[in-house]
Structure formats: structure tokens, C-alpha cells
Write a structure and sequence with these properties.
The protein is an alpha/beta fold. The protein has 16 helices and nine strands. It has helices spanning 14-26, 46-58, 62-69, 116-120, 150-163, 177-187, 212-227, 230-237, 239-246, 250-263, 273-288, 297-301, 308-312, 337-340, 359-362, 364-379; strands at 5-8, 74-79, 82-89, 97-102, 128-133, 169-173, 192-197, 319-330, 344-356. Helix 6 links the parallel strand 6 (169-173) and strand 7. Helix 8 packs across helix 9. It comes from Neodothiora populina. Residues 6-112 form the Epoxide hydrolase N-terminal domain. This is Epoxide hydrolase N-terminal domain-containing protein.
Length: 381
């Protein structure tokens, strides 16, 4: 291990943990709808928020979650003046291939907690060495300078892999991480040999008649862009407001982040206790690391949602290395094969109905299977 890379352990001081629990329990949460029978017309339902809050105040155990997080080795290294936090879990297999896993918002490195171990399993058909960084401005990665784009993040993540001794690697990612993976697959093909995406906005060919699946998801996509973008408008125009409003407000962070988990995932997954625990651990990470403000920067510095597909079509953003896409039915913007293949060298495509935007959490077995299949194709093995 390079001397430039230092070991790190997640340890939140006990006085901070006590204060966090006290703030949660002291919060006066709304107890009734904004108007009678509001349902979900005005945002998330009171029932959903009350249930998640009650699970947090009465059952959730941060100490147990901290132990789970520390089962993997954590590190910090400085690249271009930015401290980058990451997990580096090596497989015991001498034939393991390097894999970079990149999260988005409202995720974190913890988004891959259910796939790291199976991906690194030395007894699997294709094991990986997993590198799971926190984006600049998230968790223990320091905030980037003004004007920092996801293309800049791709550059330093490529440097991170080389610093760790990996001359070539594959990538799995979604959400904002999609733009990191797209840049790596477009501009860093000497090192990036395969990109797997679970989020890949792309336009259909002009005049194309919608398939049954495309028609089903189109209404949800239109509804998302019309009725669910308030958070993004705030983050891309008033990130200071978001930061001052939420930084020391754990319950506020719970609904700010949790609403997206509630809206962009498979409905059945949202009823599971493990799903609620995952949300609360992610919220806790944002709170303990004071990153809610800087986590807004991808929205402020990068392309707007309604221009995602147009941006992906630009020649310089075309993925040159072999790439794969898994279209999850419950995602915010599930694409189809004939759309995504217009944006790069698509060699693998699969549709899955068991997950949504948070694919590695909702469908870990599916992600593991699809990443392995893509990398086998890309490496010719």
C-alpha cells in the first residue's frame, strides 16, 4: 500500500452519538396532514414519515451499523488537494479483477454494502477487488473547489485506481455516478475496460413507436420530472439554504433523503425493515459527516435532469469501451436497449423488474450477476 494512502476507521465519538439520539427524540414532528386526506398529493405521506421516524427513535442502533461498516477496510488519500475516502476490499483470489463502485445522491459508499462481499468472494466464478469511494463532498471525502464537475471526479478516480496499483479496471455505477462511469468509459479507455450502468438516460430514435414497456415507464418518467424535482431545484440553486436548514437537523435529513428512497424504489422493498435500516444508516452518515450541504454540488455544477439524455448523446460523452446497462423497471428514468445503445458501445443489456433507482440495495444478486456477465464479455473470458 502506498504511503500516500492512510488507513481509516469509522468511529463516531460517543458524545456525538448521544447528541444525535437526543436531537432525534426531541424533534417535534408533524402529527397530521397539511389538509384532510392529503395522501401523497402534497409530498410523502404522514404515515410513511411517522413510521420511519418511529423506527429510528425506538429501534435503530447506530453502534451495530458502525460495526457493519467497519467490516471492510477504509482508507483516505489525497488527490488534487481533495481527501478521498474509500473502501478497498481485496479478494483472496489471485485472479480477481479490479472493480470501481461509484454511488450517487442520496446514496453513499454504503449503497454497495450488499454487493461487496459477494463480488469479492474468491470462490465465485469471477471475483473482484472492490474499490468503493465517497464522491468529493460526501461522507469523509472533502468538498471540491468551485466548478468541480463529475468529469473531474472521473479523472481523480482513475488516478485513485492507478495509485492502488490497478492498471486496468471495470466500473459499476448509477445516478450521478453514471456520469463518472460514462466519462471513464469515454476518455480513459487505456485503463477503464468495462462500464456497467443501472441508470443511463438516453433518447429514443426519432419517431420510434413505444414498446409496451417503454409506454408503461414513460408516464412515470413524465410524472417524476413534473412533480418530484423540487429537491433538485433547491440543490442546484440554493445549496447554502439546504445546508443551513438540514446540517444539524437529523430528522430533516431523514425526510430530505428518505423521500427519494420512498419514491424511486420498488414499492414492495419499502415495506422491509432492512430497507428502513438502510435509509437510516445513510441519513446517519450524512449527519455525522456534515455533508448534506456539499452533497448538493453535483446538482449545482453539472447538467440538469431534463438535459441528461441530450448530454449522453454528445460524441465526446459516448462510451468507447464495452458497456452494459440493466434497466430496472422502478427506476426514475428506465431506458431501453434501442435508446441506450445510441450512447456507446453497448454489449450487454438486461431488464429487471425487482428494483428501482437503488439497484445495488434492492437487487444485489442481480447487480452481481450482471456485472460479472458484462466483464466476462468485455475481457473475452
Amino acid at each position: 500500500m502506498s504511503e500516500e494512502v492512510r488507513r481509516f476507521k469509522v468511529v463516531i465519538p460517543e458524545e456525538e452519538v448521544k447528541r444525535y439520539y437526543q436531537k432525534i427524540r426531541d424533534t417535534r414532528v408533524p402529527t397530521k396532514d397539511i389538509v384532510p386526506d392529503a395522501g401523497s398529493d402534497y409530498g410523502f405521506t404522514t404515515e410513511w414519515a411517522t413510521d420511519l421516524y418511529s423506527a429510528w427513535a425506538e429501534k435503530y442502533d447506530w453502534h451495530s451499523e458502525q460495526k457493519i461498516i467497519n467490516q471492510w477496510p477504509h482508507f483516505i488519500t489525497e488527490l488534487e488537494g481533495i481527501d478521498i475516502h474509500f473502501i478497498h476490499q481485496r479478494s483472496q483470489s489471485p485472479d480477481a479483477y479490479p472493480l470501481l463502485l461509484v454511488h450517487g445522491w442520496p446514496g453513499s459508499f454504503y449503497e454497495f454494502s450488499r454487493v461487496i462481499n459477494p463480488l469479492t468472494d474468491a470462490n465465485s466464478s469471477l471475483p473482484f477487488h472492490c474499490v468503493v469511494p465517497s464522491l468529493p463532498g460526501f461522507c469523509w471525502s472533502s468538498g471540491p473547489p468551485r466548478g468541480w464537475t463529475l468529469q473531474d471526479t472521473a479523472r481523480i478516480f482513475d488516478a485513485l485506481m492507478r495509485r492502488l496499483g490497478y492498471e486496468t479496471f471495470a466500473v459499476q455505477t448509477g445516478d450521478w455516478g453514471h456520469w463518472v462511469g460514462r466519462e471513464l468509459g469515454a476518455q480513459y479507455t487505456d485503463s477503464c475496460k468495462a462500464v456497467h450502468l443501472n441508470f443511463a438516460p438516453a433518447p429514443l430514435p426519432e419517431g420510434a413507436k413505444l414498446t409496451e414497456r417503454e409506454a408503461k415507464v414513460q408516464g412515470r418518467v413524465d410524472d417524476w420530472l413534473e412533480n418530484h424535482m423540487g429537491y433538485a431545484i433547491m440543490m442546484r440553486t440554493r445549496p447554502h439554504t439546504v445546508g443551513w436548514m438540514l446540517q444539524d437537523n437529523p430528522v430533516g435529513i431523514m425526510v430530505w433523503l428518505g423521500e427519494k428512497y420512498n419514491e424511486a424504489a420498488h414499492p414492495k422493498k419499502q415495506q422491509l425493515d432492512e430497507w428502513k435500516t438502510h435509509i437510516l444508516t445513510t441519513v446517519s452518515l450524512y449527519y455525522f459527516t456534515n455533508c448534506i450541504m456539499t452533497s448538493s454540488l453535483p446538482y449545482y455544477e453539472n447538467v440538469r435532469h431534463e438535459k441528461f439524455a441530450q448530454f449522453a448523446m454528445r460524441p465526446k460523452n459516448r462510451i468507447q469501451c464495452p458497456f452494459g446497462y440493466t434497466s430496472f423497471y422502478w427506476d426514475t428514468e428506465p431506458s431501453s436497449k434501442r435508446a441506450v445503445e445510441r450512447t456507446g458501445n453497448l454489449v450487454f443489456y438486461r431488464e429487471r423488474d425487482d428494483g428501482g433507482h437503488f439497484a445495488a440495495v434492492e437487487s444485489p444478486e442481480g447487480i452481481v450477476e450482471d456485472v460479472r456477465e458484462l466483464v466476462r464479455i468485455a475481457l473475452g473470458s
